[in-house]
Amino acid sequence: MEVISMVVNDEFGVMQRVMGIFTRKRINVDTIVVGRCEIAGKSRVVLSVKDMVQANIAVADLKRLHDVVHIETLDNTRREAYALASNGAGKARLIGSLEEVDKLLDASKPESFIRAVNAL
Questions:
Q1: Which residues, other chains included, contact 114 with Cβ-Cβ below 8 Å and sequence gap of 6+?
Q2: Cα–Cα distance, 105 to 94 (Å, whole number)
Q3: DSSP 3-state assignment of 72?
Q4: CB 81 within 8 A of CB 96
Q5: How far apart are CA 95 and CA 104, in angstroms?
Q6: In sequence order, what DSSP letters do the residues of 9-61 get, joined into one string?
Q7: What is the pLDDT, as a whole number, of residue 6?
């Protein structure tokens, strides 16, 4: 899995323009995390895709969007996964590397869960 992190203008329609690139290139996005960041008036968008070829295709087109201030692909040392899982006993928050969280989800077999990737 490859992770793309970008700082974008915090304005109406930016996510539609960003995701439009993935739609046109037929690239499936596995996870999306978006939120305010350290730069006033900007947001950080973290996306994960299946492989480096897809990531490179997306990054090349995303660099051309006027809304994208900064973009990069991130190695394993700069990212982590988290999940919120639920079963009959309650809910659990899981945080760790992608591999650690996937292993815990596989082992616990929760009734429902959501897993995301985040990075800086």
A1: 83, 84
A2: 9
A3: strand
A4: yes
A5: 10
A6: E--TTHHHHHHHHHHHHT---SEEEEEE-SSTTEEEEEEEES-HHHHHHHHHH
A7: 97
Question: Which residue's entry shows tokens 């996964």?
Answer: 81
Mean pLDDT over 21-44 rounds to: 96
Are 42 and 69 in contact, with CB atoms under 8 Å apart?
Answer: yes
Mean pLDDT for the stretch of residues 86-109: 92
Sheet holding 90-96, edge to edge: 90-96, 79-87, 112-119
**How are beta strands 31-36 and 79-87 bridged, if at all?**
unpaired
Q: Using alpha carbons only, how large is the chain's radius of gyration in Å?
A: 15
**What pTM was computed for the model?**
0.87
CA nearest to 45, candidates 16, 3, 6: 6
- Please tell me whether residue 93 adopts helix, strand or coil conformation: strand
d(CA 55, CA 106): 26
